[in-house]
Specification:
Keywords: Membrane, Transmembrane, Transmembrane helix. There is one protein chain. Helix 1 packs antiparallel against helix 2. Helix content is about 65%, strand content about 0%. It has 3 helices and no strands. The chain is elongated, with a radius of gyration of 17 Å. It has one domain. By secondary structure, it is mainly α.
């Protein structure tokens, strides 16, 4: 289960990088620019619009894997993995002091 959780964390991290590349390519008005920072064909834009939902699904799967690993105990999940629930996937409970 630990390996699955780590794979999900890395997948989310990779998709977040791809998502922000899409932001730099398609949402240039947010940065006050008229030309894309990264030129990506507009035919790819629908795929970038789906990415946040895929990322959300992977984050939910990661929380579920941790829930099952703890024997379906919600209290233990919140106690041990609350940073994973409220922050980015790269921060774990043992890193917060």
């Amino acid at each position: 289960m630990y390996t699955i959780s780590k794979i999900l964390d890395l997948a989310v991290l990779g998709l977040l990088v791809v998502f922000f590349i899409g932001v730099l390519a398609f949402e240039v008005a947010y940065f006050g620019l008229s030309e894309p920072i990264i030129p990506i064909p507009h035919e790819a834009e629908p795929y970038f619009e789906v990415l946040p939902w895929v990322i959300l699904g992977l984050l939910m799967a990661d929380i579920y894997v941790k829930y099952v690993k703890l024997g379906s105990d919600w209290r233990a999940l919140v106690r041990q993995h609350w940073p994973d629930i409220i922050t980015d996937p790269g921060v774990h409970a043992d890193q917060i002091h």
